[in-house]
Amino acid sequence: MLIRIDTCSTLPLAEQIAASVRRALADDAVRVGERLPAAREVARLLEVNVHTVLRGYQQLRDEGLIDLRRGRGAVVIAAPAQARLHEVASQLVTEAREAGFSESRTVALLRSSWKEAR
């Protein structure tokens, strides 16, 4: 699995790492039960601090996409559909912030869209 970052992006590196893994999960390039590359190896290849990679992995754990345990590494536990939804939600938040939307306004927009889709 290839994890990519853009050093020119304003998005923090840990978030870029999480987004890259999320995309791989959504595209079914990584499947449930597979291990992600070791944080030290990713850090070495991307030339970033290992804690940056771990922050990205922890974000994915908090989203329920991976299981992260010392000595066992990061293992995918979510299906592609869940990863796609997280990716779309992350993109929505990014675009809403760029457009100057508050959290409450963004949530209201999502609620409105949810009702319209019934």
Topology:
Layout lengths: L12 H14 L12 H8 L3 H13 L3 E4 L3 E4 L3 H19 L4 H14 L2
Antiparallel strand pairs: 1-2
Helix pairs in contact: 1-3, 1-4, 2-3
Structural notes for this entry:
By secondary structure, the protein is mainly alpha-helical. It is 58% helix and 7% strand. The chain has 5 helices and 2 strands; from the N terminus they run αααββαα. The protein has helices spanning 13-26, 39-46, 50-62, 80-98, 103-116, and strands at residues 66-69, 73-76. A two-stranded antiparallel sheet has the order 1-2. The N and C termini lie far apart (37 Å).
Q: What topology, given as strand order, has the largest sheet? A: 1-2
What is the helix fraction of residues, given as a range? Answer: 55-70%
String of helices and strands: HHHEEHH
Profile the largest sheet: 2 strands, antiparallel
**Poorly predicted ranges (pLDDT <50, ≥5 residues)?**
none
Distance between the termini: 37 Å
Q: What is the typical, i.e. mean, pLDDT?
A: 92
Give the overall silhouette.
Answer: globular
What oligomeric assembly is this protein in? single chain
What's the total number of strands?
2
Beta content: 5-15%
Report the radius of gyration as a whole number of Å.
15 Å
- The tally of helices reads 5
Going by helix content, strand content and strand pairing, the class is mainly alpha
